[in-house]
């Protein structure tokens, strides 16, 4: 049987990559366009368990032999769940909860706030929300990952890496239309075509237009994506890739409420907030255009060595009105609107050399890398603190007085200070995996990172210039108890955060070292029943040291002896127990708290704004295979988030987001050339809140119709 081979960097789908049952169903597959579409509707294999990736370790390392825990959300899940927003993608990852909701790309990983800043292993630092149309899969790496990816694009909890769709060698594509509640209207296109006769040059273009209203009295999001990708296979040794992502967004999606210390009630349910109120206006919005260009040259130096040179350049702008609102005294909302204009440019250049060779009888895989990242930001922003106070529980004429005209008049009285900041990061790293025996492998890695802050410049001064050098080691051990089926692993991983000098009360500046996070983790990984059952379970502990805080002696000096501890358990299971039945499930428990950072002791040892301690996710998908109903698809699942503290003290009370369970369901029908999916989000119409006091979407019905060619 002739395999389908995507152009250059794609993965080949062959008969041997599927379990025997799926192979039997697809023996007649060839590379014709019609039959390639048949590959997309195979139901007799574990389609959610696409864990293998060369991006995670920057090495050809299978999940079963990788000492790091990671999750992959493949495109099949996005299609199966008819996902239209980026936040919904991460709901399929164990231990992940949303950070700032409503247009934000932030999440909690192992208790640490993590922004989604990586695209194809490199920077994409943007202020807008992320469009899912161009995504092939999302990879979520758990734990401090600075050794290979640096500190600027990661957090102590991990990282989120988006892998985009790549061209392949045959003509094909899909066009879809989605309509749904709250004025959801969406159209997407994915078109791939070879550009020359021998198929060495390919073009794949993804387009999306998304227009969505809100269940509240104000709020909307409009975004447009144009993402072309060129692949040129120059020879059997050299492959070139060039792609771009042109994005435009206009939105009022920042409607959030922040609790203050004056509250006597301890959760938003008791406050009795009318969740239909946004405390904003559709006349107040931000525009967030961005352009990212990515290029890669991959050259096979020999049978053992490969060179990969890549660059990524992003220009992003944020311009317009925004507001953050405070709840005070249990009965009032203080609105604090403002205006900002920010332009950020980021460029990253990276060179990797990959080797795969024998040392005696032992297989050795190694990556040697150099990385340069530079970022510059120009901004001008002002805020009107305490613009007005609006009553929560009754009508208030002031509610409608937040208009552009009134806000502009108030902003004219607030000083506007333009500022410029810049930084450069120079890095070198090496990671080596040595198979001491076919079952036992050891990973040893290290990164040296030199951070240069060019400071912050205003009209009359420049401050904050400094530089720091930080090493970041990583160690891992994997033993395959059953070769290629069951392994036990352990890892030590490191992350760091650069710290600028602090101006002390006496006028002197104190230099600080970077704060470091050190993780120890142990667990098991399984790939059983010919790939039909895969899973990971692990326990981890992350110690953060050298945290800066205010001295306890009342002097006001900044000192660097604080710490933080995050520990917990995570598990994920992906199963295909019967033909057509696919399940993904996850559970996590995380305990995180600060130590030696609070002079009064009110917060030390207690969870603060770190997301919920417990989360669980489940999705069950069944594709009927009988003759009469072949092509019918059913899906159901959801998420559980435990109680999430915003603030918590030993004696002065707390404020938290109540636990919740949200269910979603889908019903679809698919044939070779088309697909229809009906989805019901928030099946039970659960009233729940996201991070801080952000009322989440009630029940919504939507329908997607897709045509494939």
From TrEMBL:
Q: How does it sit in the membrane?
A: Multi-pass membrane protein
According to the entry, every stretch annotated as the TonB-dependent receptor-like beta-barrel domain falls at 323-683
* Compartments, record wording: Cell outer membrane
> Which GO cellular component terms, listed alphabetically, does the Swiss-Prot or TrEMBL entry include?
cell outer membrane
Principal location listed in the UniProt entry: membrane
- Where would one find coiled-coil regions in this protein? none
Q: Which UniProt keywords apply?
A: Cell outer membrane, Ion transport, Iron, Iron transport, Membrane, Receptor, Signal, TonB box, Transmembrane, Transmembrane beta strand, Transport
The lineage's top-level taxon is: Bacteria
Residues annotated as signal peptide = 1-22
User: What are the GO MF terms of this UniProt record?
Assistant: siderophore uptake transmembrane transporter activity
List membrane-spanning regions. Answer: none
Keyword presence, Transmembrane: yes
Q: Where is the TonB-dependent receptor plug domain?
A: 64-152
Q: Which PROSITE patterns match?
A: TONB_DEPENDENT_REC_3 (PS52016)
Q: Which family does it belong to?
A: Belongs to the TonB-dependent receptor family.
Q: Tell me what this protein is called.
A: TonB-dependent siderophore receptor
